[in-house]
Amino acid sequence: MKNAPLAYCLPVLLPVLLIAACGRTEPVGDLPSQEELAAAANAAAASALANQQAEAQELAENRNYVNMAHGFSVTLPEGWVMDKAASNAEGIVYQDPGAGADVRVFWQKNDGDQTLQQIVEAINDSSEGVDGDFVGDKEYRGTANDGEGNAVSLRLLKQPDGSIVTATFVYPEMLSEQYQAMADTALASLRLFTPKAETEEAAPKAAN
After folding, report:
1. Euclidean distance between CA atoms 85 and 70, whole angstroms
2. What is the count of structural domains for the chain?
């Protein structure tokens, strides 16, 4: 049977080929060294840390509200959210989602060039139990009651052009122990600086 048909040979050849294939050892590629594995782990850890830091920085930046046009900034409480409908180019409203508290910081034009004393008197007319102190003639810090069971901490700052930046922190009176320190911190963070337009106007004069 020199020329046995191929069909007769296949049943014999297939097991042999399979056994030969199973017994073959393919060359294994170069495995990474311990140093390479350590470097990869360090790179992954560094990337995770960088991402965490970036997220923390983003949260911090979101809490720091800066109004370049009107020259003031404030740091909002952590975990609060902006009320986009109530915020505008003149200022911002941030709310505690769970307790009905909010902080509002707004710039307003002072067309009549009222003094802080006159403005505080107007607040007295619209709120109850207003009590506070003037810090010179450019600042007022006080507390009040809105007549609806809410306590109000407020801070007023008068800018050089006569305009007023008003910050109010409103929270339920029954939660004073929880919110009073937070209100003090938020209002104390309010800062004034030269508005962008005035800075740009002063730059050419300084150059000349």
Report:
1. 20
2. 1
